[in-house]
Specification:
Mean pLDDT of chain A: 90
Oligomer: homodimer
Strand order of the largest sheet of chain A: 4-5-6-9-8-7
Helix content of chain A: 25-40%
Number of strands of chain A: 10
Distance between the termini of chain A: 23 Å
Strand content of chain A: 25-35%
Number of domains of chain A: 2
Radius of gyration of chain A: 25 Å
Largest sheet of chain A: 6 strands, antiparallel
Chain lengths: ~240, ~240
DNA sequence: TCCCGGTGGCTGTCTATACAGGTATATATA
DNA sequence: TATATATACCTGTATAGACAGCCACCGGGA
């Protein structure tokens, strides 16, 4: 008998969750107060408090000081997608990753980029285009703008050895990121690089990153629709 | 002077985070033990413990019982996308939402659906196709399969009044969800419903949901690429 | 040299107690 | 009646003390 020992606060969390799932308490209802749960369950108030605090963080409960603890309303559908360093992801599949540098130079900033970086349109920014291959099959175009003030030696890097993502996170750890996912038709140039048919839809992920509150990079990742998809799974914990 | 009062555990968290950001402690380093922090900061061990525990949940630290507390390695890029009930989303923009029921009937389960629901191929399942419009402009096709065992009266619902999402979450709260995002070309039928040009790429979000561990619904949402995009933002908290 | 058990240091949990601060209700006052 | 005040109850935070469980390391014995 491998008796599982479970901490008290976990058992309290489970009990609360079960009562909600079982219909004893409905969304919006006030549940028993900490003091009542102490008497009912025979554990200290600190233990009850920890259980209720964690359930609140997990979105199961809502607490109002001076009033009580309530069952939270149905939470919105949230999907968690992990967008990872492509080199790592490919390596994990046991495949070979290679990156080709298509372009690497300083350019005048387009409007959108200038605005992101807080520069004037036409100011000098770094721009790189890379083609990532998995076992020699093109899987991603990386079209990146970088603020020169945060990565002065960007143009001197060998991105066939270390991806820009790895280089940038090393010199400016990401503190904030914004992602946009769209379905697009790639340009003719991009289509040729990816070696895909005309009219093949692609996933485009645009990511802007900040380090210590300052914008660092604006990257557009293009994936052939036939070779790539994003997936994620969520499951509330007990 | 509106002096902000900050709880001790918050100040401890901030201090730890600052030392990591400031380079005092690097990823992989062992940080001071709870006992050392008690002596250094003059607060109780429970307070230190709460701060470290929360930083661990947030992914900033890693703790190993019997060994110590370590600065976590660089966390993977994670993008949080909120995929919401489209009716709500449209209402929030102050626009008019209308749903048209294109199809609503029982059908033999295709292979993939049967497998998800744990049925034999060809078993009777419910199938609905809805077209969602925002100010009379088509914005989403909802192609949904539902396990009849969890929603016996699915076919009797009026989905122009209440979306299937709302109906299903009411009778079977979602406990788990899986999402897949792809770029696709819609079928001719779908293209006509959405009133888009040939070759216009679309975002396709496939979602499978479970309630109490049992599969409930398999839905394919198709968005015209020119009218829709998914966005999300993450920022580590202090 | 290799294996084994002891030991100190670390995190994980739990308790009893205390006080602060918020909210709603009842009570007293103008 | 309307307004201020007291109070009961609730959550939020903090503390000292205790014990359990885990792990790395060291020293002794085969």
């Amino acid at each position: 008998m491998n008796q599982e020992i479970v901490p008290h606060y976990q058992r309290v969390k489970r009990m609360i969750a079960d009562r909600i799932a079982g219909g004893t308490w409905h969304p919006g209802d006030r549940i028993s107060s900490e003091a009542e749960l102490v008497k009912e369950l025979g554990v200290s108030r600190m233990t009850i408090n920890r259980a209720l605090r964690e359930l609140t963080i997990e979105g199961v409960l809502t607490r109002v000081q001076g009033v009580g603890t309530f069952v939270a309303s149905v939470k919105p559908q949230a999907a968690l997608f992990e967008v990872r360093n492509i080199a790592e992801e490919i390596a994990e599949r046991g495949h070979q990753h290679r990156a080709a540098v298509i372009s690497l130079k300083a350019v005048p900033a387009p409007d959108e980029i200038a605005e992101t970086f807080g520069l004037k349109t036409g100011a000098r920014v770094f721009h790189s285009i890379l083609l990532h291959r998995e076992n020699d099959l093109p899987v991603q175009i990386e079209d990146r703008y970088v603020d020169p003030r945060h990565a002065a030696d960007y143009l001197e890097q060998d991105f066939t050895r270390q991806t820009p993502y790895v280089y940038l996170t090393a010199i400016a750890p990401i503190s904030e990121a914004e992602h946009i996912i769209e379905a697009v038709l790639p340009s003719t140039t991009e289509r040729k690089l990816l070696k895909i048919d005309a009219h093949e839809p692609c996933l485009q992920l645009t990511r802007r990153t900040w380090s210590s509150g300052k914008p660092v990079s604006h990257v557009r990742l293009i994936y052939p629709g036939s070779r790539y998809r994003l997936s994620g799974r969520i499951a509330p914990k007990g």
